[in-house]
Amino acid sequence: MSHVKALIGLGNPGSEYDATRHNAGAWAVESLARDSLTPLRAERKFLGHYAKVHYAGHDLHLLVPSTYMNRSGKAVAALCQFFKISPDELLVAHDELDIAPGTARYKHGGGHGGHNGLRDIVSALGNDKSFHRLRVGIGHPGSAKQVTNYVLGRPGKAERTAIDAAIEECLRTLPDVVAGDWASAMNRLHSFNG
């Protein structure tokens, strides 16, 4: 599999959404930017907050779209076109209902699974689904009718601590990801349970 050249963190813009479960993907990118001492800055041409970091011997583009979740594709496509990044060189971090808080999974390709951010990215990339995903577990409310309120709600303290622990473990596996060693990254991350 290819080397990752860009890490995209999905979420909704605005202070009212910052701490909501739907922004778990954005939290991962914001954590990496903080750890790298490189602030994300508003970048109009990418419709989001952007930084470039030299990470584990590789240049890595970081982007948190400032569009709403269901319009994330425009920002991702703009970044890809500008830097000539192919879909299989992308890692998109997003919240995942089907995984418990405190866990995260890498995935290569596949459908959008009902996730509006992924759906829009697939569409904006010409239906190319070959990008990598970092699925940050937020758990499921138990009923499909409760999903919208749940993802737009704030996790409790213990739940947020578990999500943050999983994100920290993701960042520990990222050097393997940017080096293209997906087997090692997956073995480590998939055995972690915060």
From TrEMBL:
GO terms for molecular function: peptidyl-tRNA hydrolase activity. It is an enzyme of class 3 (hydrolase). The active site is at H22. It is found in: Cytoplasm. The record marks N12 as: Discriminates between blocked and unblocked aminoacyl-tRNA. TRNA binds at Y17, Y68, N70, N116. Keywords: Cytoplasm, Hydrolase, RNA-binding, tRNA-binding. Its EC number is 3.1.1.29. PANTHER family: PEPTIDYL-TRNA HYDROLASE (PTHR17224:SF1). Belongs to the PTH family. Catalyzes the release of premature peptidyl moieties from peptidyl-tRNA molecules trapped in stalled 50S ribosomal subunits, and thus maintains levels of free tRNAs and 50S ribosomes. Hydrolyzes ribosome-free peptidyl-tRNAs (with 1 or more amino acids incorporated), which drop off the ribosome during protein synthesis, or as a result of ribosome stalling. This is Peptidyl-tRNA hydrolase.
